[in-house]
Amino acid sequence: MSDTPVYITTMYRWGDEESHSYVLGAFDDPETALYEGEKERANKGGGIKYCPEVVKVYIGEVKNGGVILSRRRH
Q: 7, 28, 63, 69: most buried, per Cβ within 10 A?
């Protein structure tokens, strides 16, 4: 297990986890993860079609960390 967090950015169509989604990337700092998610959102459907969610995780652990940013509908 690692003590270093990894920030996973996932893009959700219409902000809905039941619709199409994809992992945009895994990043070593939250600022980059947020930036890349927002950049992808602006480039896909004019900023409304896909919404980013950034989650902090630790390698080798099933449940740890938490949501950093979510633009999904709840």
A: 7
